[in-house]
Amino acid sequence: MSIKIVELDWRFKGRKAFKYRVGLEDSMESSTPQLAKWLKWATETWGMSVPLDMFLSNTEFERNPHWVWHHYDSVTWKRLYLLLKSDQDLALFKLKWM
Asked: What is the pTM of this model?
């Protein structure tokens, strides 16, 4: 399993609120167990969060300042990503998972 870290730029949704996108090179089906571990770890580390679309559109709840997840689904492939706020959040992720 290969972890891919991307620094968000103008092409990415959520770039104003988050700095990094972390995902796996593998297909969603083969990487689901690892992604579930990441979601559990992020929740234990920073607290509950919400999907990116909800984070960006709804202001009626308290937003987690450290992370969200984003599920990208197209006709040909599916991906689940963590979006991380800062260099420090990415460093914690790397210490645990890389």
From this structure: 0.85
Between the alpha carbon of residue 41 and those of residues 12, 26, 59, 79, 87, the distances in Å are: 24, 20, 25, 18, 17
Total tally of structural domains belonging to the chain: 1
Q: Which helix (H) or strand (E) holds 93?
A: helix 87-97
Long-range contacts of 83-88 (CB under 8 A, 24+ apart): 83/8, 83/14, 83/17, 83/18, 83/20, 83/21, 83/22, 83/52, 84/18, 84/19, 84/20, 84/21, 84/22, 85/17, 85/18, 85/19, 86/19, 87/19
- Structural domain that includes position 18: 3-97
CB-based contacts of 65, cutoff 8 Å, min separation 6: 85
Question: Closest by alpha carbon to 50, among 66, 37, 36?
Answer: 66
State pLDDT tens for residues 23-33: 887 666 566 78
Both tokens assigned to 55: 């984070």
